[in-house]
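The protein record filed below.
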Amino acid sequence: MTRETLAEQVAAFAVRVRDAGHDPEVLPAEVVASVRMRVLDVLGIAVAASALETSASARAYVAEQGGRGVASAIGVPEMLSAPLAAFVNGVLAHSLDYDDTHLPSVLHPSASVVPGALAVAEATAATGRQLVAAIAVGLETTVRLGMAGYDREAQNSMFFEHGQHATSICGTMGSAVAAALLLGLDERGVADTLGVAASMGSGVIEANRTGGTVKRMHCGWAAHSGVVAAQLVRHGFTGPPTVLEGRFGFLRAWLHGRSFPDEVSAGLGRTWSLPEIFFKPYPANHFTHAGIDAALTLRARGLDPAEIESIELRVPRQNLPTIGEPIEVKRAPQTGYMAQFSGPYTVVAGLLGGGGLGVGLEDFTDELAQDPARRELMAKVDVVADPTCTAIFPAQFPAILRVRTRGGKEWAEEVLANRGGPQRPLSFAELALKFRQNASLGLDDDALEFVERTVAALEGLDDVRPLLSSLRTLAKTTEEKS
């Protein structure tokens, strides 16, 4: 039976997945496997981010809030309320720009949904299967709402056109649905949770262009807001049934009349977008990745950075405001964080070679961002729009790199499909390596092994609490890592 509103359709789908148990017809094995990998990815990234100043700020904030301790935050020895634990872990999960990305909606689903779901799962002593189902539905909801703001004709996200961070806005909704399922709400309760959460999502994306660390907070606040929305509904708050498509609803308010509501409901419960979400091989804004790949390839082909006269990074027109403008800022990032949004810096990092899966966390420090030799090379980089890349965006974030050396030789490399996506997937071994390199910054070998082993068996756990409690006290402190 077709439900009258989009929120009711999402709620019916959500509850059916939660209540289906181990039925692979409702929750396919590939979706379960994808959720498992995303939990491992988020936990590794969050541990790696624990030493950042903004992570310390998040911990200091929650220490002032009080509340009944029922959930764990990474690096916080004391138990916290579920919303505050979700906030800390969401901040950490998104702070390194190393979290996954859905295309073409251009949002990062897991950094909001996974922390929110983990907090409520711990607070309710959920099983692994309940957690997996909640995360799966939360991610699917997030992606579908993101696609409702994607204009296929213009090949662009309308959220971004309005300066809105789709990741945190849609992530609030996905986190809310996941939390509602874990709190045991029925279809009406899940629909009400969407109605409440729609008044809580937010995010302005200007920091991508000109700096500031506020974007690191966005997924934490989305996770926090989603949990709070579900808790409010459990205590009696309700939301409008037409919250998504109504005259003054979510789609109209954010997208100003240019939205695509069929993206929410088409094939819901039959087809899953979740397994197609791209993993990130490099800890930088996803728009920079193809340029990194191209630079790494040219370096492997023998290009000597010392001989470079000029570099042209050709990207989709839509990527320019994020990684190429203002060019004087992008050629001279002041911090490692700003370098993550710099086309010139990331190309230089690829040309010089780095850690991780080609370029790693150690390549984005404040010292390297201000290194004179790198600045000299960055000054030679122009970032320009390319029609071929623009035509492909945002199904991929392609790049073409052209280099001229002092001897007059020209080098070129095209990367038209992103590493980590369905066309060039990361192997499990590569993702496990990424997790271990990230999590080893805060965990000892025994803890690494425990987390990896536990997540590998996630859907079979009788109680998820030991997984989260193992991360409250990190073996390697901020002082040891500095």
User: Anything to note?
Assistant: Residues 477-482 have pLDDT under 50 and may be disordered. DSSP finds 25 helices and eight strands in the chain. The longest helix spans residues 128-148. The two ends are 58 Å apart (CA to CA).
